[in-house]
Amino acid sequence: MINKDFLESLSPVEIQMVHQYIGVLFKDRIKDDTSNFDNLKAEKCPCCGSRHFVRNGHDPKSGRQRYMCKQCHSSFKDSTNTFFSHSRVSYNTWITFIGCEVVGLSLRQEEAICGVSKTGCFNMRHRLYHALSEYQDSRKLEGLCEIDCAYTSINLKGWKRDMPRHSKKRGKHKPDKNHKQLRGISHHKICLLTAIDENDHILFKIAGTREEDLKKYQSFADRFCKKSTLICDEKQSIACFVRKNRFGYDYIPSGSFKSDKGNTLSSINQFHQEFSELIRRKHGVGTRHLQSYMDFLVVTKELKYKLELKKMNTRLYMDIIDHPIFWTSDDICHIPMPVDVYEVYKEYGYADPRSLS
Ligand SMILES: [Zn+2]
Questions:
Q1: Structure pTM?
Q2: Residues 249/230, Cβ–Cβ less than 8 Å
Q3: Cα of 45 from ligand 1 centre, angstroms
């Protein structure tokens, strides 16, 4: 297996040889119709995980190698239960698509560049986001951490039946009789808890609806190392959170942007700006998918500290390739809402379809 250590152990003349040979290989092996399956190699049985399997003829349709597990006797291919199992898009298209996602293009732009329909791009986007979002949750923030919350509105994009409220009318219109006028909409907002540590690791999570409170912060307490020092505003909820978990702290007094020690919330403020820019560019993001978009922003933001933009697509491809996806495109529209919209909109008096059935 070629890895970084192996390449670094080569002598200058060996490196030159590899360099020349790679050029030839690149031309011969990476073509427009190169399939993602060429990057996959069966290492264990997808059914039982056993590494004892034998070759078992070829697939009549695709001509690809089939294997049979010696333990559970199931038959499989290199591509069975992998990220690319149900994707017919070529290798090059996937690489181009990931590049488009990294720079944040819209579905319409991706459709034009990749030659895949908008629905196809939508599905690819959600497969990609889903595969990348899992690894973040295992990490803890440490050292000096900036912490704050941002807010965004509930967005029911893509919602087809049982709307929990009336559709909003855009532009000039008379007030809707059925739609009670309510003051103060803060509980219609979604609270996005954000923290960035000194190593630029980012925590960016939907914490619920309404304003931030101790409970929201506390649900992410285990994502911070015990010895962390939090840089934050003088807010009651954060102060309680800091005391309860015995974190160090550095408060920024209200009316100032800097603490006495000279710390600011500039990284978080910049990150929140990038987030609003992303939402604007995507023409709004449905709340159902909001966390996926947030996760992808975190992944790319963290990678940008380490890698050049043009190298990020291959790196992300390598990250998703081992990640099996068991859902189909139909499931994307049915993933659960991260917040209870029926509870939020209950003042409008709509029946909750869950209680009817
Ligand atoms: Zn098996």
A1: 0.82
A2: yes
A3: 5
